[in-house]
Amino acid sequence: MCFMKRITNLILLLAVLLWGCQSKKAEQQTNVVYTSTTPLVSDVSLPQSYVANIQSKRNIEVRSQQEGILQQVFVSEGQMVHAGQPLFRIAIVGEDEEIEKARSAQEQAEIDLQNTSKLTDNNIISPNAKRMAKAKLQSASADYKLAVLHKKLALIRAPFTGVLGRIPQKVGSFIQQDDLLTTLSDNSQMQVYFNISETDYLDFQQHPDLYTQLPLKLLLANGSTFPAQGHIKDISGQFDNATGTISVRSLFANPKGLLRNGQTGTVQLLVRKNHAMIIPQEAVYELQDRKYVFVIDKNNVIHQRQIQIAAEATGIYVIASGLNASDHYLTDGIQKVNDGDRVRTRFVNPRQAIKSNEITI
Fold it and tell me: Read out DSSP for 272-298?
């Protein structure tokens, strides 16, 4: 009996001590004053990022227009060439002989026309014979011009100033008509393509002057920023049904030739959001890849509420759903409280709450 009495007294003592600790903890927690506010509703410019594909102003394939042996290569891969500069020479078997043959046929046709004209003028033969001789001369002249053109095309020149790509054929290779010799890119100005959502597209169509004047920033693959700014030029004519996006073409000057055809990067532009609902990121916590805030009811009891993010910038979230402009939420102490706790709060102006987190709108 004595032993059981001691056990009972010990349990009662532990219960009293535990209740005292909990009461003290609850009292301390009740004495803590947290900061609360409502979402800031304001117009804000937010950076939007889009994956970009970079293409040259002009990018063409240089192909052979006739068959022959690659006799000379005057350039090297990656070289900057100027308009009219020789690139390749293709040796065509019998090209000079073809020209002589065509020239002789032209001269013969001229003589035939002269003789036929005299006979026609003297009414010895019909006028149709003169017309036939004239037609033969025109045909012979065309053959001669074509032979000269074939020889001229044997020397392939750069159609415009640009940078050469890979040269797959080597000197001595047999070249067929339409074989690829190299590529040529005009990189003086680059076309940068990126895709935007239907929502952004509608904003663009409603404020075209604003968007076309927005400066674009281009981030390169190594994280550096391209020194020149770009601007939006135009938008594609239709949406991609698979992605629900539409392509935008922008232009960037490339005076130093840093950008090349086929590169990738990220385009950033500042998009104006009117009447955006903004909260500091410090007021948000994550749970299983979802974002939450603590909303305070009229009895000072906090409730966990999931929110959806429309956009984010340094230190702030723009709310898509989950909060109303009149909702009070905690801005600090979110790691110290739990759903259902009763708390004491001090309300601050929404803009002051943003500034206290050293965020500039």
Answer: EEEEEEEEEGGG-EEETTEEEEEEE-T
